[in-house]
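Dear colleagues,

As part of the handover before I leave the project, I'm documenting each prediction I ran so the next person doesn't have to rerun anything. This entry is a single chain, and its sequence is reproduced below.
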Amino acid sequence: MGSCVPKKILTNSDLEKMVDTSDEWILKRTGISERRILEENEPIHKLGVEAARQAINDSGVKPEEIDLIIVSTSTPDYLVPSTSCIIQKETGAVKAAAFDLTAACTGFIYGITIAKQFIETGFYKYILVVSSEGMSKVTEWKDRNTCVLFGDGAGAAVVGAVEDGYGIISTYIDADGTQGNNITIPCLYLPEEDIARRANYENKMTLWQEGQEVFKFAVKIMPFASEKVLKDAGIKVEDLKYIIPHQANIRIIDSAAKRLGIEPEKVYTTIRKYGNISSASIPVALADAYQEKCLKKGDYLVFVGFGAGLTWGAALLRWSK
């Protein structure tokens, strides 16, 4: 595992000076106290490179032994070259194939699901999965409903074969494109609909979301996805050490946990100090739990997330380190 967040901290008190909001309002509605933000001239891939280097060092695998690099990001510095190719160059993983995927906040779960297939078939031995996000670059800082939510960061994992009964046991990914207009970040095309709902935005190419619709969707889909991977593996909720959810909003996390019937102390969160960092939320939280020595061999973990697309997914893992 590896992770990297920027040095710059943006607190709720800082945001009080930027928009009509308050620390109390933000904390109550989102569970966020602060978030990490890239400097204006800092590239997003810098975070992914550092997280990748840490993960490779932690794994004991040499960079040239990495067969494939998968990067999930909704905020690449370039469309081409891909962020995965930049990370390949910077880490010295010279023999690795590389590609990016865009599944928004569900990206890490999509990434490890793909890695699982390649490894189980024997096609590849070691795969580097990186989630690198610079959400501050696509945030409209005058929109108090969204600017309080997002931060920047990256998480990474080297995935390879482990002993039977451990590792990634069950995964589930899905999508519903009919709800895709509830969260959008334009790139090379901006339809009339997006222009209209961004009427007050300084930058029309930033993130927009329909918060209430996303909330209603998330609190239903997160328990459903979690229960599916548990049922597929024959594991009970009470057997889990932690659920590590996408760190979108504490109200979503709490509502989903209540529906799932899991104790609050079994839900691992980092949202208070990092905010919502899209697909990097889950691997950064996992790296945090690992670094804090909260995990021991044999612990069952569920990762669960949802995001633009709309996409969603979950993964059941039995910790093998």
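The chain has two domains: 2-165, 168-318. The domain at 168-318 is CATH 3.40.47.10 (Peroxisomal Thiolase; Chain A, domain 1).

All the best with the project,
I.
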